[in-house]
Design goal:
This is Amidase domain-containing protein. This protein is of the alpha/beta class and 509 residues long. It folds into 2 domains: 286 residues, Amidase signature (AS) enzymes; 76 residues, no CATH class. It contains 18 helices and 13 strands. It is globular, with a radius of gyration of 22 Å. About 2% of the residues have low confidence.
Length: 509
Amino acid sequence: MDITLLISLTMTILGLSYNAEGSSFSFREASLHDIRTALDQNRLTSRELVEFYLREIQRLNPVLNAVIEVNPDALYLADKADQERKSTQPSGSMKGLAGVPILLKDNIATKDKLNTTAGSYALLRSVVPQDAGVVKKLRKAGAIILGKASMTEWAAYRSSSLPNGWNARRGQSVNPYLKSADPCGSSTGSATSVAANMAAVTLGTETAGSILCPSSSNSVVGIKPTVGLTSRAGVVPISPRQDTVGPICRTVSDAVYVLDAIVGFDPDDAIATNKASKYIPRAGYLQFLKSNGLEGKRLGIPRNSFVGFRNSSEKLKTFEPHFNTLRKRGAVLVDIVDTADFDIIVSSMNNDQYKAMNVEFKIALNAYLEQLVTSPVRSLAEAIVFNEKHSKLEKIEEYGQDIFEAAEKTNGIGRMERELLLNLTRACKNGFEKLMKENKLDALVTADHNVCYVISAGGYPGINVPAGYDNDGLPYGISFGGLKGSEPKLIEIAYDFEQATKIRKPPPL
């Protein structure tokens, strides 16, 4: 069913009784703090909030293609949240994400009336056995699942020719700031929808840049957590060694609210989440939203590296005022000039990680497909056949499925693959970790999403924050990456930078 028609039917059946535009509450660009305060003070209801976002999806999605499906139960869940809030008052207010609508990337499973398809017709009407681990935590926190955000099909892992933000089910997602610009992927819909105020907050996933890149290109904040900090159970996989789930929001504080809700141990992703749970601070991450978070932080600036600013004199000139801001806020900037050896290691690491991911993808995807209750396909091989059979829907002749085919030719993890994985571990230690430790850095700073090139293979965390707009109005970000478990430092850095600059502005829709 067409998403616009579905929204109209949902709102008609459940009774649209409120005009969001007539409210004294400022919906657009509203932060979670604004929303929470208004809900607690009875100046806003969850129904009004959901109605506003449904209207914005209905208005903007035909152009932006940011949302694949809306939850037909969204207004029912909003009414339920409002009733629960009334029952707690006046004894106390609801906390966290209670009554707040959230969009999920379409590769994050929900056991409800929504599909989970990774943007592909091959998984349409498949039935998942249960909610994804992060969705269980969101529901426990009281969040309302508003719908599924569009994405680059199969998280950009079907074909090397797929445009960022394209999938067979919804078509091409559009950057809300500049229609002709690359919206970046693969969590494209999550970034474009929250940038355009079609959702309060969103979730994305990242294997190698899929949170940081669309966040940078759409002037929003993206947090790529340490691998294992958030559960990957119930997420259509690429590489368990690199996959992670994280928030994409309009502000650092909003992203931290969501991060607090989704981190922690999950028995369905036990090994990774148990290992990473040691990094989670007892009082959560909100305590690191500090106005003096940059004070005393050592930040590395790789001026001559391809991950930093090499061959980008104009970009470097653009970022110099930001470097001055970082200094004024008390940070110590460490110029890393001699990056030749570092670049060689990182280039080799990036080549090896994609070879490893092909092997890991086939194993992980087959396991995911096999555990589905029902599904049109049960293996990568069957997905390839499905695409060939439905080549017009999936645009196989135009975009192909070369990554699928290369991954299908792999034969598991043998001696060569183990050596490859060992080389990746060494490269991470001799590259990024060595650079961080030798220079005593709290974070590495790069333009745009470029830090992803050094943090992906090792499962390290990163944060993107809006940094400006070029002459055409296209956004770009600044990214901070750190060692495993360094989210508290990264949040302090990102929040202080954001508050000092306040660069983000809504798109000119």
